């Protein structure tokens, strides 16, 4: 039997890959405009990085990682997300020596062992940014504005930005106490996972997707109820900056990022039309993370966006720009001699940066002309035995049907000047 690709992975084929290019290029342009530079980290890292940087109690580390021993018996993991790697690089490559804040972005494949379904894959792609070395509300607002702006440029609508503050370790301790008190009598009604969370990480109970747990925790104290003065004013500031920038958002006190090193702002962007997996972007502040993985105390904030889900939204909303034909001219050669001469001419034209192709299968004139049409070529450059004899090239304008003869030695010059007029 023919070998198939692994479950939860995709082949991105010509026809759709143009959509990826469009999205990736738009992302690059936004990042450049906002002063973010690209970072590329390894696809696999020491497992410990994610255990510490994502957290032992998260779904990702508990059940979703592709972990293996390499031939040197080291435990390695295919990266399930990008933030931990960027923070590791920040420390290892001493990026803190640069003017702060360091503003980075990445794009690339991530790997999680999940149940494949619509919008959920085992190999998927994220675009993310991380800002390291700045704790001002301005940064939180800039990062969210970048996401918003990207969606504007892509022409997406119907998006909701959900925002919350999970506070700092000080106000979280107060919240934990109140939450414990609230859940004390209801604990037994929670799902198995949440019963575990009750001891280790009760904040995450608020985030449980189980409808029963959601009912049990209805009316539970939220982190917003217990914010200290510093965290409160940080949050208010972020909200007012976002309002000033025209970003519409919704404060959602149940949105949490539950690890100790997640602090203050947490946010998510949802779009309903793409089905159950409606979160297209998630992010927040992580002022304790760099220290957690062994670096100097450094505030940080970032987000990660699922590109398959953004593409799904673009598809549903019909927002892809029309594809432009890529081919300028098709070189149509007939007979061995003309083929040789034509091949040389095609290469000379390519050398000038003109998109030209020729038939590679030795097909008939009719088939070659059909291919020229199909590829959207503007001109057919026709060279048969007879033209070769007379040292001319037939230049047919495929839009108007008009055909002219050009002396072969002048062909490059003439085609080049037509090409330039078109660009
Ligand atoms: P979810 O609740 O959907 O599992 P998550 O909290 O695990 O999301 P993050 O780790 O915050 O997601 O990743 C950021 C974004 O990456 C998500 O909002 C989503 O768009 C995308 N994403 C996460 N997991 C997958 C996956 N398995 N397949 C496709 N996209 C994904
Ligand atoms: Mg997940």
Automatic annotation (TrEMBL):
The keyword Kinase does not apply. It is an enzyme of class 6 (ligase). It catalyses: tRNA(His) + L-histidine + ATP = L-histidyl-tRNA(His) + AMP + diphosphate + H(+). Residues 8-325 form the Aminoacyl-transfer RNA synthetases class-II family profile domain. Transmembrane segments: none annotated. One of its GO terms (molecular function) is catalytic activity, acting on a protein. Pfam families: HGTP_anticodon, tRNA-synt_His. InterPro entries: aa-tRNA-synth_II, aa-tRNA-synth_II/BPL/LPL, Anticodon-bd, Anticodon-bd_dom_sf, His-tRNA-ligase, HisRS-like_core, HisRS/HisZ, HisRS_anticodon. Its main location: cytoplasm. One of its GO terms (cellular component) is cytoplasm. This is Histidine--tRNA ligase. It comes from Desulfosporosinus acidiphilus (strain DSM 22704 / JCM 16185 / SJ4).
